[in-house]
Predict the 3D structure of the following.
Amino acid sequence: MLLRPHVVLLFMLDLVAIKVRLYPTKTQVAQLDRAFGCCRFLWNQMLDDRRQAYEQYKIDGIKSRYKTEKEYKQLFPFLKEVDSKALQNVNWHLQDAYARFFQNCKDRKSNKTKRYVSYPKFKSRKSRQSYTTDTINNNIKIDFARQKLKLPKLDSWIAYSDPRVFTESIRKVTVSKTKSGKHFASILIARENPIVPLTVVHEEKVVAFDMSMKDFVVTDDYKLGNPRFFRQSLKKIVKAHRHVSRAKKGSANRAKACRQLDTVYEHYVNQKKDWMHKLTRVLADKHDAVIIEDLNIEGMKRFNKGYAKSITKDISWGEFTTMLDYKLTRQGKYLVKVDRFFPSSQLCSACGYRYRELTLDQREWSCPACSTHHDRDVNASQNLHDEGLRLLSGKGITLIRATVGTTGSHASRDRVNPPSLEVVVDERRIHAL
Ligand SMILES: [Zn+2]
C-alpha cells in the first residue's frame, strides 16, 4: 500500500509543529497551572456527565443533551478566569475522543480493524498536563528576537529557548507540563511545501527492511547497532524506582523521589526520540523510497519480543514509521508499506516459488524448485524490496535500474521542479504534536 497517492500537487501545505521549551516565571507557572487545572476539571466534568447519560439511556449521539463549555462556565464561574479557547478545545477534544471510540466499535464489529480505541478516560492531576488554544484576533504572538511568547489570558510574555524563526502565522498552541515539571509549547503552523513528488526513482536509492531482522539492519552503511543509553538509563530508572518504594508514603522524600523518577524516565524517552529522529533523517535523506512491512499487532509483538530486545527499547515502531513517513514525504519521496499478508519469508527470491513448509525457526533453507540456498532474513528483505518496487511502478513511477558505472547525469535526481532546500532546513528539530 502506498501511503500517498501519486498526485502532483503544487504547494502542498504541511502542518508543522514546532516544540519549544518554555521558562515561565513563578507567577506564570501559577497562571498556567490554573489553566491546566480548569481544562482538566472541565474534561472530567463533561466526561462524567456523558458517562451518566450513557448509563441512563445506553445510547449516544444526541449531542443536544450534553452541556457545552459555555453552560459549564455558568455553573462553575471560576472557569471564566482562563482562556475560553482552551475550554472550547476541551469540548472538541472530548467529542473527538468519543467519535473515535464509537467509530472504532463499528469498525471492529465489521472486522475493518483489530485496533482497539479505548473509552475516554478521566484526567489525573498527577500525569502530564496540557491545554490547547487557537489563534483568534492575533492573540498569540511570538517575539523571535527576545525569544518570548504571548499567550491569551497571561499578563506577561513567557520566555522560551529555541533558535528557530518562521514567518507563517500561528494556528494553534498546545502548552504542556511534563511530570517532572518542565514546560513546553507546541506551536502549529502551516508551511507551504513546493517540493513535487519524484516521478523517477533509481533502484539503488531504494531500501527495504524487515522489522523482524536481527539487528534491524538497514544496509551496510548504517547498522543500528546497540545504543548504550538504554542500558544506562535502565540502571537509573531501576535505582529511582527503588528510592520511591523505600520512601514513606506521603513524605516529602517520596515526592522528591517521584520527581527524580519522572526526570530519569523523561530523559530516556527524549534520548530515544532524538535517536529515532536522527536515524529516520539519515534514511530519508539517503533514499528516494523506503519499503517496510506493514506490521499488524502480531508482527509488532514479534518485533518487541524478538531477537534484539535492547534495540526495541530504543525504537517505537509506530513512531518510527510516522517520522520516516513525513521526512520522506516532505522531500517528495516515498514510504511504501507492503501488505502484512505478503509472504516475504516463504517466497524464493530467485524463482518465485512459494515454500509453504518454512517454519518460524528455520534460519536457512534451500528452494525445492531452483535449489538456491537462502538466508531467511536476506531472502525476505529481497522479496520485500521487489514487492515494494512493483507497488511503486504500479503508481506510475518510473524505476531506473542501476547499471555498472553509473555516474554523472544518471546519478542525479529527476524532478519536475528543482528542489527547494529551505523547506527541510529545521526538520531535524521539529517534533510531531
Ligand atoms: Zn527458487
In short: The pocket of zinc ion is lined by residues 348, 350-351, 353, 367, 369-370, 372 (CB under 6 Å). Residues 12-193 form one domain.
